[in-house]
């Protein structure tokens, strides 16, 4: 069974073709600075045909998407017109994510009208979290309208939790996973139940992101509007494009540039990394309490796997919990490996694991197709 996973960004398109009998990757590729998803899809299908990975389109069992958010759709779902409309209803909450996905999925449906399109929503892993972890203290009517903590990055946090269970053995493990990349979140998983995620109602919440604001007191918005005369559109734009690590550092939305500037003495860049580490620790602390400890704290994604200095900033000074980093192992870590970087006497394993969101999506798509038969 061949399943194509399409990863659609606001200006990028990446794909991976998987053989779901063996879970082998048959082809992968992608395009940056995409202006026309139809064109990127055509080119990707042509590449897969030329390489022999997908000689005939009929061989494709489904196209899977790591969709972000839809009104009242939380799990894995066929992307019918109704589901796309439910995604559109949440465009205001995920303005950088939902519109490109909807456009890309519609293009795919034009090109492959007989192939099922299936989305695993990023909220899925948190569906069964305790109600108290999902509810904001808002009027009941707002909660009914969908103002609540959904949590995102579900495919990645799920992959990490399942990988930890395989690597460490045992059941009902308490895993705190730190997905640090373009978007950032901390997740808590107990066994096979997602318990909580630092992302709340929108992918703009929780930790600072590359250029999107994280946690923000909601009363900052009327203050900016009424006292400083900003319009809601200006505020939303700034929260989406001029916030996060870019906003604090004033340097870049890429941690590599921020670290380089900090090393040259740029105080704002230094502060950006300190805020980032502080907030990551804040969430790890919250989940250490919620899970009553942790069997593993795991770092993953572009920053989590590449930035040893940040990992050290986060894991320093946790002796009271019995959590101890092995500094040499942390510095020696090479991207791509699955490694334990805690000291031998650490009560909690600190690990770095490459994530694999595509395989989680593909497995759920396969399950949905099999259940339909
Ligand atoms: P992701 O979205 O997981 O691909 O992560 C992207 C982010 O990872 C980039 O914005 C960078 O800040 C960070 N990153 C990627 N490569 C490196 C690296 N070699 N060193 C430090 N950070 C990196």
How many runs of DSSP E, i.e. beta strands?
Answer: 12
| Unreliable residue stretches | none
CATH superfamily of the largest domain: ATPase, nucleotide binding domain
What percentage of amino acids are in beta strands?
Answer: 15-25%
Average per-residue pLDDT, rounded, comes to 96
Q: Note the overall shape.
A: globular
How many structural domains does the protein architecture include?
A: 2
Task: Please report the first level of CATH classification, the CATH class of the largest domain.
Answer: Alpha Beta
How helical, in percent, are the residues? 40-55%
Using only CA atoms, what is the Rg?
Answer: 21 Å
| Separation, N- and C-terminal Cα atoms | 14 Å
What would you say this structure looks like, in words?
The chain has 2 domains: 2-121, Nucleotidyltransferase, domain 5; 169-352, 2-Layer Sandwich (Nucleotidyltransferase, domain 5), CATH 3.30.420. The chain has 15 helices and 12 strands. 41% of the residues lie in helices and 17% in strands. It has helices at 37-50, 81-88, 98-111, 131-134, 140-145, 154-168, 220-226, 232-241, 244-249, 255-263, 267-290, 301-306, 308-315, 327-332, 357-372; strands at residues 2-8, 13-19, 24-31, 60-65, 76-78, 117-120, 174-180, 184-190, 193-197, 296-300, 339-340, 349-352. The strands form 2 sheets. Strands 3-2-1-4-6-5 form a 6-stranded mixed beta sheet, sandwiched between helices. The chain has a 6-stranded mixed beta sheet with strand order 9-8-7-10-12-11, sandwiched between helices. Helix 10 (255-263) crosses helix 11 (267-290). Strand 7 (174-180) and strand 8 (184-190) form a beta hairpin. The relative contact order is 0.11. The model has no long low-confidence stretch (mean pLDDT 96). By secondary structure, it is an alpha/beta fold. Bound molecules: adenosine monophosphate. Adenosine monophosphate binds next to helix 10 and helix 12.
């Amino acid at each position: 069974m061949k399943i194509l996973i399409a990863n659609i960004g606001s200006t990028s398109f990446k794909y991976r073709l998987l053989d779901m009998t063996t879970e082998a990757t048959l082809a992968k590729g992608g395009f940056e600075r995409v202006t026309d998803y139809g064109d990127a899809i055509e080119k990707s299908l042509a590449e897969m045909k030329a390489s022999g990975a997908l000689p005939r389109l009929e061989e494709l069992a489904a196209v899977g998407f790591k969709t972000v958010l839809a009104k009242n759709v939380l799990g894995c779902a066929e992307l019918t017109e109704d589901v796309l409309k439910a995604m559109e209803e949440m465009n205001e909450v995920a303005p950088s994510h939902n519109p490109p996905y909807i456009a890309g999925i519609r293009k795919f449906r034009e090109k492959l009208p007989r192939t099922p399109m299936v989305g695993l929503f990023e909220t899925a892993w948190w569906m069964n979290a305790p109600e108290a972890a999902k509810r904001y203290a808002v009027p009941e009517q707002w909660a009914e309208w969908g103002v609540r903590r959904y949590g995102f990055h579900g495919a990645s946090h799920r992959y990490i939790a399942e990988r930890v269970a395989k690597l460490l053995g045992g059941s009902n493990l308490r895993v705190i996973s730190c997905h640090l990349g373009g978007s950032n979140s901390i997740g808590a998983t107990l066994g096979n139940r997602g318990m909580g995620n630092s992302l709340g109602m929108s992918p703009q919440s929780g930790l600072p992101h590359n250029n999107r604001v994280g946690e923000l007191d909601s009363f900052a918005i009327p203050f900016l509007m009424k006292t400083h005369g900003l319009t809601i559109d200006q505020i939303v734009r700034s929260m989406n494009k001029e916030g996060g690590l870019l906003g604090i550092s004033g340097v870049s939305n890429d941690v590599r540039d921020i670290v380089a500037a900090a090393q040259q003495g740029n105080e704002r860049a230094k502060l950006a990394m300190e805020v980032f580490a502080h907030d990551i620790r804040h969430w790890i602390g919250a989940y250490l309490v919620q899970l009553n400890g942790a069997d593993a704290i795991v770092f993953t994604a572009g920053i989590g796997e590449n930035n040893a200095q940040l990992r050290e900033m986060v894991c320093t000074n946790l002796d009271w919990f019995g959590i101890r980093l092995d500094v040499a192992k942390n510095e020696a870590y090479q991207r791509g490996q699955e490694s334990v970087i805690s000291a031998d006497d650490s009560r909690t394993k600190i690990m770095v694991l490459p994530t694999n969101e595509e395989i989680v999506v593909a497995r759920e798509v396969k399950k949905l197709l099999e259940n339909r038969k």
